[in-house]
Amino acid sequence: MERKYTDRKDLILIICLLITAGLLYLLFSFKKPASTCEIILDGKVIQTVSLSEDQTFSPEGFPEITLEIRNGKIRFLSSDCPDQICVKSGFISHPGEYAICLPHRLMIRIPEDPSSTDSRPDAVTGKAVPNVHICGRIFL
Amino acid sequence: MKKKSLLPSGKRLLIFLLVLTISTGSSGCQKSAKKHSCDFYDLFDTFSNFTCYGLDDESFGRIKDGLYDLLLSFHQETDIYHSYPEIANLKDLNDSTGISPLDLSPRLIRFLSFCKDAYEISDGKVNVMIGALTSLWHEARETKTLPDETLLREAATHTDISFLSIDPDASTAYITDPAASIDVGALAKGYAGRLAMEYLAEEGVENYILSLGGNICVHGKPLGTGRDAFVVGLQDPDGPDGTYNETVSLTDGCVVTSGDYQRYFEVDGIRYHHIIDPMTLYPAAYHHSVTVICDDSALADLLSTTLFLMDEKEGSPLAEQFNAKVIYK
Questions:
Q1: What homologous superfamily is domain B90-175 in, according to CATH?
Q2: Which of residues 52-81 of A touch B (CB under 8 A)?
Q3: Rounded Cα distance, B94 and A140, in Å
Q4: Cα–Cα distance for residue pair A82/A84, rounded to 1 Å
Q5: Which of B171, B19, B160, B58 is nearest to B110 (CA)?
């Protein structure tokens, strides 16, 4: 009988720990959405915009490009570049995500939050990485 | 009646430890090691990123500059669209076809020799002398019209690998057929990754992840994140850009993907992607994407293209031969 009692204690402990784990998981999955986006030209941040307000605008110095912010997400709505890879990239909203218009050397990126336990991978392979069409090179 | 324990004691302990790990793992109280990251926009006509852990600012600045110089010079040497006054490159080689051998750097000669080896390894599926053919497909992609069949067949007669003649002792190369041209797009980025990893090893850089337009080279782990390996997401071919439904963890090695969804154009609702099968002269249709994971970046790049151009059954002995892990989608 003594043995059984110990097992129940174990079980309670396991359940408690599972609940703790569950709560921690919920805590991290409900972390607040990223609130800003950096607009980067040639590796330098030229503008930081808030994602809390829906709007459509052109980044500073790029009337040929239109960005759209909707529901806390941002995307390239239009661009005059030939490949349109930036537009096809679609909306981004999570820390570390980015979309690039390489012909214009312009990138939009959601800054990483160093305090968060970010579950995004360090890199993505097979992404439709843009190429510079003016060079006309095809990578086989 | 004596009730039995719900779990045998060994298993019980294991579950306890597992639950404890899950509970505490996410709080990640490790001492943070400095992370540096930089982007390159003008290498191999794509976007590259170098992220490194555990270096001080000064070391990172020096390493990053050295890496950039190395990759830029290799990019310029393998560029077939621009000439550079300081160096002899592959555009110069294409421009002097049928005229005379050209002096090239020993590094470029080694790369060209690798290209010849790649032809043998891939049984002719990765052929850098395919320039006459890929230029027609490139034009097609720009104009969104299919290339003329007779032009394709004519171009294919100028793609023999033997047209590329290399003299390693004299450090010269020569394209003997005036209508042939070299296109190293299938191999340049992968080989650049190999050069980069060699350089970073020489500099003693322990923990980094380098992405050359999605060709990924990894060494060590992301210090201070609590993770024991870098995590690479595999693009979902059917999902929006940047979405992944599978990840690969690795501490040393390379991941390269060849996919039909990355660069393509459509004619009459049919997609024509950018990986041309030299046997059929048309884009290959075996897979949506092939991801190769192996130790060497140049080999990973070569294998991903090769395996993309054959069915899984034909490809598996080749993958085994080079100890490569392959993920088909």
A1: ApbE-like superfamily (1.10.3980.10)
A2: none
A3: 18
A4: 6
A5: B171
Could you give the CA distance from residue A21 to residue B194 in angstroms, rounded to a whole number?
42
Residue B248's H or E segment, with its range, is strand B244-250
- At residue B8 the predicted structure's pLDDT band, cuts being 50, 70 and 90, is low
B285, amino acid identity: A
CA B22 to centroid of chain Cα atoms: 35
Q: Do A125 and B257 make contact, defined as CB atoms within 8 angstroms?
A: yes
Look at A140 and B189 and tell me if their CB atoms are within 8 Å.
no
- The C-alpha of B84 sits at a distance from chain A's nearest C-alpha, in angstroms, of 14
Res. A56 pLDDT band, cuts 50 70 90: very high
CATH of B35-76+189-328, one of 3.10.520.10, 3.30.70.920, 3.10.310.10, 3.40.710.10: 3.10.520.10
Quote the percentage of chain B above a pLDDT of 90: 67
Cβ pair A99:B27 closer than 8 A: no
Q: What percent of chain B has pLDDT over 70?
A: 89
User: pLDDT at position A126, please?
Assistant: 81
Please name the residues in contact with B294: beta carbons below 8 A apart, sequence gap of 6 or more.
B253, B254, B300, B303, B322, B323, B324, B325
Give strand ranges (E) for chain A.
Answer: 36-41, 44-50, 55-57, 66-70, 73-78, 98-101, 106-109, 123-125
Say if CB B300 and CB B220 are below 8 A apart.
Answer: no
Long-range contacts of B269-272 (CB under 8 A, 24+ apart): B272/B137, B272/B140, B272/B141, B272/B146
Give residue limits of the domains in chain B.
Answer: 35-76+189-328, 90-175
Nearest chain A Cα to B259, which residue? A126
Answer whether residue B30 shows pLDDT above 50: no
First-to-last C-alpha distance (Å) of chain A = 71
CB contact under 8 A, A140 and B130: yes
Nearest CA in chain A to B216: A125
Token code pair at residue A73:
């997400």
- pLDDT tens for A1-32 read 555 556 788 888 888 888 888 887 777 665 55
Determine the 3-state secondary structure of B50 from DSSP. strand
The predicted model gives B140-152 an average pLDDT of 90
Q: How far apart are CA B149 and CA B152, in angstroms?
A: 5
Tell me: the pLDDT tens digits for A61-118?
899 999 999 999 999 999 998 878 788 888 888 877 888 888 888 889 888 766 555 5
Supply the DSSP string of B153-202, one letter for each residue. HHHHTT--GGGEEEETTTTEEEE-STT-----TTTHHHHHHHHHHHHHHH
More confident residue, B290 or A131: B290
